[in-house]
User: Fold this.
Amino acid sequence: MTDPVLVRPYGDRRDDGVVQLSFVLPLPAGERARAAAAEVARQLGLSGVQLAAMEPAAEGYTFFVLYGRTAAAVDAAALEVPEVAAHRHGFDELNEIARREVGRRIVVLGACTGSDAHAVGIDAIMNMKGYAGDYGLERYPVFEAVNLGAQVENAALARACVERRADAVLVSQVVTQRDVHRENARQLIDELERLGARGRVIAVLGGPRIDHRLALELGYDAGFGAGTRPSEVAGWIVGEVLRRMGKSLH
Amino acid sequence: MLLPDGRTVPDLRLDPGVVGRCRELAGRVADQVLASVQRRTTVSIERAVLRLLGFHAAGPGGIPHVNLMVDQLHARGLLGRGAAWWLGYALRHGAHDPDRIVGLFAGLPREPPPLPAAEEAALRDEVRREARAAAGELRRRVAERDALKAELGTAPRPHKYLIVATGNVWDDVEQARAAAQAGADVIAVIRSTAQSLLDYVPDGATTEGYGGTWATQENFRILREALDQESRRLGRYLHLTNYSSGLCMSEIAFAAAWERLDMLLNDAMYGILFRDINMRRTLCDQHFSRRICAFAGIVINTGEDNYITTADADEAAHTVIASHFVNEGLARRAGLPDRLVGLGHSFEIDPAREDTIVREVAQALLVRTLFPEAPIKYMPPTKHKQGDIFFSHAYDVMADVVARLTGQSIQLLGMMTEAMHNPLLMDRYVALKSADYVYRAWKGMAGEILFREGGAVERRAGAVLGAARELLEEVARDGLPAAIGRGRFGDVARSETGGKGLSGVVERAPDYFNPFLEILEAP
Assistant:
């Protein structure tokens, strides 16, 4: 067995453990606030704390920027990380594979659900135009992609999945204040189960505060976070449809 | 070009024939809309009338009295005569408190017999007196706001507009004060995310909201009171804004006017396109709400920035301009002078492309030049923001530079943590500090710059204006509903009879009575 390889934050030399940090303390700026900020950093486990900036951000509130060294060291290889299996295929290639192997159009519904009115995420993935030069699902001939927009009720979305015989449903959750996204995301899964359709629909969750682990925890099949390109989602869906057909996407 | 506030911006040569044609076409569009608006009323307009007549509170279960009253009238098909008429009817039958009025409305037949002419006249006179008294009180409250503004003065333009969105009105007060102390000129309290689709205005002080704080009359009062105090302490008038949008545009406009707010988000098409609210409903509601804004001297902010968060900012630039002309035309027809028409747009071209600043400057200067009197509101980038806060900060600063250079009037400051979470106290602080630096550093520079004749900025502005004219030709020919039906604005298509809230639209009866409209429409 080989020794674990530990990694540490890297500032300008390997393993120096340098991290940068900024926060506000509800104290007026001054020596006491400076000492308090340094102590916060020490309690976070930082040593060699350097206070780069202390500025009054409002009356009774002070903004700090500081640096310190952490002793934290991680064996990255030993971590258990659920990862969305990535299939990297070009636009034409993916369409061709899906046309040949699936043999029909894959129905994908997308929505921003519950009270969430922020359609920017689902739009980026679904809309023809796509995001950062990467075409959205509507542009793929192999997908029958329908973007239902914002504030779609979970019950209505579940019904739409059944009525349109959706292969996959994409749910975007942007508003995460007081964890409203968790309850809301779970509700769709409950609704699908109530209709006996959960097993037939691939459920995908996305949003700036979503990751694959959280999505699995909430009962979804995959989760995509900030910076996800439409082609990643497209590739994953085609792969999952094939997997369920007993095939695989290479 | 010299702006009314004394700033100079680089001249932008435009074809005056094209500009004039755009305004003429938009005026035609606005006239078509107005003709349809004047045939109808909505449950929200009628509730706003009753609010103006003094019914501000809610009953058990938090249902506003005005909803209970209007629902009874609407269920009986009686709303076409106007809620004010029926209130007069109730008053003359001895019903004064909300419960008794609702009870009386619930007992009305579907076709009540006509009143004798003398009684009819007396009823209308009585309600008109009430309306005049209420309008007088509203005018007094607005004058109080204007006096404080005149006494303390406001900061130089652009006004720095900061968002607060904790969900809890008391936390909003803290955050608003902190933002003001750090230099904010305008505080916007973002609404709870689902509110636009509620067909009532929640009641009282609220401490739970999602992605924002419920817009209620009491929350408005609390924030305005805090900002009045803070304005006096800082010796600088602080503006407060909220959202007159969704299904309750008119009622929010009333609550904001009554509680002395300074600005309101209010767009003729935003609800239709981005909240799927029925077209007829929104077009009626925007008109009445703007009448209230005109009466109360409230600056409206339009929402064209949203078009280019869905459509591509490069390709859809002309839709923003075309919509500005339409919003201007509709606003003027609701009695708003140009100084209250805060047309909105934004810095949204994909930063991964080349030469974006030429096109951002051309667009921002085009808007500024076309609408010189309007307090233009400029929004920061949001669509292409990602989690790298350091890049985001640089990106926002670039928008600050363009805003200062092109003489924008109100600038919403971008947050480095956009797309991650609601602004933290330090996010606002850093945004304000940087904006102050940009405004200070660029103070006289805008007056020194001349853009090359026939150069890239001028060509781009001319091309966008030309494309806006073509779109307006289409809209004027086919009508606004048809253009929206084809997805001409924001890449979103809506039908005239689709969307939410159509059931709350009512044809006005020949004897429709709305004493506030009479006052608001008086020249």
In short: The interface with chain A takes residues 167, 177-179, 181-182, 192-194, 196-197, 208-211, 274-276, 309-312, 350, 352, 382-384, 386-387, 419-422, 424-426, 429-430, 433, 491 of chain B (CB under 8 Å). Residues 42-133 of chain B form one domain. The radius of gyration of chain B is 23 Å.
